[in-house]
Design a protein that fits this description.
Elements: H1 2-17, E1 28-31, E2 40-44, H2 47-54, E3 60-63
Antiparallel strand pairs: 1-2, 1-3
Length: about 90
């Protein structure tokens, strides 16, 4: 019984520490067609990747109108280097 409680405690702790799930955000969607609206998959980073997936199946690729690019990471900050002062001898 103690082992079971220990394992349960470990699992609860791991779940609490884990990162939260977020929806993936990609710029291209594959629309597989169909008479009732069909199915779409907005999981493609490039148009070519989308077209390759549809190859032989039919359907079309279109831009994801809900795509929001991730914010750009800040670049390295510029710090001017100071030259050491030379003392006259």
């Amino acid at each position: 019984m103690r082992v079971l409680l220990f394992v349960l405690g470990i699992l609860v702790g791991a779940a609490a520490i884990g990162t939260r799930a977020e929806a993936q955000n990609y710029p291209w969607c594959a629309d597989y067609g169909g008479s009732w609206g069909g199915v779409s998959n907005c999981g493609f980073t490039t148009f070519q990747q989308c077209m390759t997936t549809l190859s032989g199946m039919g359907g079309f690729c279109e831009r994801n109108n809900q795509y929001v690019p991730a914010p750009a990471a800040p670049g390295p900050r510029y710090r001017p280097r100071h030259k050491p002062h030379r003392h006259a001898q």
